[in-house]
């Protein structure tokens, strides 16, 4: 299991890195569109009401992929600047809704009703679209290092939490949602991510250096802790979806890891808030 997990991680890093440093900008954009579409597909499979056909989940994910590919023609720095105030307000509203949904769901930790499933499913399409847009924006606005440093920050929360929780953790973080997650794992995840946040800030154009330049070192470190908590909540929310569906993994697409959503739940949860902190002046 651990061998499969390691090999799959290496393959993901390799494909991601090659697409990100490719001379053709479209390679990363297409790869990202595929990943987000798969995340949405797995999310919908776990969240749609029982009366909704699973085939419709696939159709919605394919439709979103096609919409994202068509939208690439219209996304540019000039268009984003032109409509930035509208974009910022839309993302702010969507992020507030997302934080409310994820926090309330995790704290209540109960089985969703069909109407709740329907609303969560509809919102998943919106949230995945927003995350895709923000990552595309980061890609065309900053260098590759910005995205890499951001993703390492989020991945460290999950990776360090997994190993520390497995070998050291005893006290459960949220037993009703995920029996395997421990408080020790969560704390270690936050610590490692904050350490990485500080170390990467010494390299120009990292996402931490951007936050520090805008807010100051103290506030940026505080924000990094908040972002770490959001990633953990995103992980717990996805675990709750799996609990509602009675499954262990969102899919079997990634051997040793489960599904694509299993690996990107923290990213989906953190990116909207990260965008607001890095781009919007309050």
In short:
This protein is mainly α and 282 residues long.
Please report the total strand number as a whole number: 2
Computed structural class: mainly alpha
Report helical residue fraction. Answer: over 70%
Mean pLDDT reading: 87
Low-confidence stretches: none
Quaternary status of these chains?
A: single chain
Terminal CA distance reads: 46 Å
Number of domains: 1
Strand content: under 5%
Overall form: globular
**Which sequence of strands runs across the widest sheet?**
1-2
Pathway: Phospholipid metabolism; CDP-diacylglycerol biosynthesis; CDP-diacylglycerol from sn-glycerol 3-phosphate: step 3/3; Lipid metabolism
Protein name: Phosphatidate cytidylyltransferase
EC number: 2.7.7.41
Family: Belongs to the CDS family.
What does this entry look like structurally?
Its EC number is 2.7.7.41. One of its GO terms (biological process) is CDP-diacylglycerol biosynthetic process. The chain crosses the membrane at residues 31-52, 59-81, 87-111, 118-140, 146-164, 184-203, 215-237. Strands 1-2 form a two-stranded antiparallel ribbon. The mean pLDDT is 87. By secondary structure, the chain is mostly helical. The chain has helices spanning 2-21, 25-47, 54-71, 77-82, 84-108, 114-141, 144-167, 183-200, 207-215, 217-245, 260-279; strands at 172-174, 178-182. α6 (114-141) packs across α11 and α10 runs antiparallel to α11. β1 (172-174) and β2 (178-182) form a beta hairpin. The chain starts with a helix and ends with a helix. It is built from eleven helices and two strands. The radius of gyration is 18 Å and the shape is globular. The protein has one domain (2-279). Helices cover 78% and strands 3% of the residues.
């Amino acid at each position: 299991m651990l061998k499969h997990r390691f090999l799959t991680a290496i393959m993901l890093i390799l494909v991601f890195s090659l697409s990100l440093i490719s001379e053709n900008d479209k390679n990363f954009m297409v790869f990202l569109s595929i990943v987000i579409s798969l995340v949405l597909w797995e999310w919908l499979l776990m969240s749609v009401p029982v009366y909704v056909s699973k085939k419709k989940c696939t159709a919605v994910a394919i439709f979103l992929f096609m919409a994202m590919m068509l939208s690439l023609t219209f996304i540019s720095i000039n268009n984003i600047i032109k409509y930035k105030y509208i974009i910022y307000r839309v993302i702010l509203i969507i992020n507030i809704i997302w934080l409310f949904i994820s926090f309330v769901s995790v704290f209540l930790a109960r089985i969703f009703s069909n109407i709740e499933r329907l609303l969560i499913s509809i919102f998943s399409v919106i949230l995945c679209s927003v995350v895709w847009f923000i990552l595309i924006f980061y890609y065309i606005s900053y260098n590759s290092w910005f995205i890499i440093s951001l993703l390492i920050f989020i991945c460290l929360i999950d990776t360090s939490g997994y190993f520390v929780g497995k070998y050291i953790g005893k006290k459960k973080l949220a037993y009703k949602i995920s029996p395997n997650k421990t408080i020790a794992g969560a704390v270690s995840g936050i610590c490692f991510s904050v350490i990485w946040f500080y170390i990467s800030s010494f390299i120009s154009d990292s996402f931490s250096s951007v936050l520090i330049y805008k807010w100051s070192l103290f506030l940026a470190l505080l924000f990094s802790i908040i972002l770490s908590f959001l990633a953990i909540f995103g992980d717990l929310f996805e675990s709750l979806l799996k609990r509602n569906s009675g499954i262990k993994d969102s899919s079997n697409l990634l051997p040793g890891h489960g599904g694509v959503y299993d690996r990107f739940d923290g990213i989906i949860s953190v990116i909207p808030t990260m965008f607001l902190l890095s781009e919007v002046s309050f």
